[in-house]
Amino acid sequence: MNVLIVGGTGLLGLAGAKELIKRGHNVKAISLPEVPENLELPETMDIIFGNFETMTDNDLRKHLRGIESLVFAAGVDERLEHKGPIYDFYRDRNIIPLKRLLGLAKEMKVKSAIICGSYFTYLDRLWENLYLYENHPYIRSRVDQTNEAFSFYDKDFSVTILELPYIFGVQPGRKPVWVFLVEQIEKMKLATFYPRGGTAMITVNQVGQVIASAVETAKGAKQIPVGYYNLTWKKMLRIFHEEMGYKHRPIITIPKKIYRLALLSYKRKYEKAGIESGLDFKGLAEIMTRKAYIDNKYLKTILKVKDDDLEKSIRDSVRLSLEILHKNRQVVEMK
């Protein structure tokens, strides 16, 4: 199968590309020019360096010609704050460019689109009483992105949304998302204070398998909650502590009320700096103190995702984060 991956040298896109090539597919990638130094890229992958958002329609048509499946592994997530209104920022980066791309893909007779999304859309369906769509601009943007993508579905064009959770694993030379948490833990000194709760997780290698299998099984309009492992925050933090040299540091569970107050202090800092967050700080306490778990049965039985070493992936993420913070390791930043 001929596959085009937008964001094909990023953490997720490259993992998908390698797995697809391993399975015998032909992969083309559109990638931003800035990639980590000495990044190992598959020799058989055709890479177009450039920003797909600024490419002309005719350029994109050329790249889509002969393509059977489109993988969208680009866009931004909730980690990137911005001066308000924040929803407009997410709309302009995640929804409008994808809408244009899907329209051109259908015109060029592409058969399927696989979109790397967020498990927040799954949680929005799961926890209707929390009104996540109404309260969190980032979550609203992801739900709107899904709905916009599904509007392109018909009998000749399938759309699959991969609702991705916390992802562990590294791409050497690229900044992990976990630098902020490592830095946060270091600042707490005598003990680590964290709320009760937990989350679904997956390794980056497994995400590559999910992307490849989604391409191969694409049919209809589907939202797939992607989660393979479920860990409490405390279990996750114990692994962080060991890799950071804090094996015996206590982890103190703080009540939701106290955690909410701590988050509100962040909100005031953001307001003072004129920055908005994609996740409402008050509502975030409700999410973080729950167990945002996902059953892995679909991944194991339908997508045939294999077990991986989650603990090693967590340790690799922490180790690279420490190198960035303390050894001035030069890496490509998140965009």
Walkthrough of the structure:
This protein is α/β, with parallel strands linked by helices. The chain has 13 helices and 13 strands. The strands form three sheets. It has a seven-stranded parallel β-sheet with strand order 3-2-1-4-5-6-10, sandwiched between helices. The radius of gyration is 20 Å and the shape is globular.
Fill in the keyword field for this structure.
335 residues, alpha/beta, 4-stranded mixed β-sheet, 45% helix
Helical content stands at: 40-55%
Count of alpha and pi helical runs? 13
Largest pleated sheet: 7 strands, parallel
Low-confidence stretches: none
Task: List the SSEs and their pairings.
Blueprint: E1 2-6, H1 11-22, E2 26-31, E3 46-49, H2 57-64, E4 69-72, H3 86-107, E5 112-118, H4 120-126, H5 132-135, H6 137-150, E6 158-164, E7 166-168, H7 179-187, E8 192-195, E9 198-203, H8 204-217, E10 221-225, E11 229-232, H9 233-244, E12 251-254, H10 256-273, H11 281-288, E13 291-292, H12 297-301, H13 310-326
Parallel strand pairs: 1-2, 1-4, 2-3, 4-5, 5-6, 6-10, 7-9, 8-12, 9-13
Antiparallel strand pairs: 9-11
Helix pairs in contact: 1-8, 2-3, 3-6, 7-13, 9-13, 10-11
What does this entry show, briefly?
With 335 residues, this protein is α/β, with parallel strands linked by helices. It has helices spanning 11-22, 57-64, 86-107, 120-126, 132-135, 137-150, 179-187, 204-217, 233-244, 256-273, 281-288, 297-301, 310-326; strands at 2-6, 26-31, 46-49, 69-72, 112-118, 158-164, 166-168, 192-195, 198-203, 221-225, 229-232, 251-254, 291-292. The protein is globular and about 60 Å long.
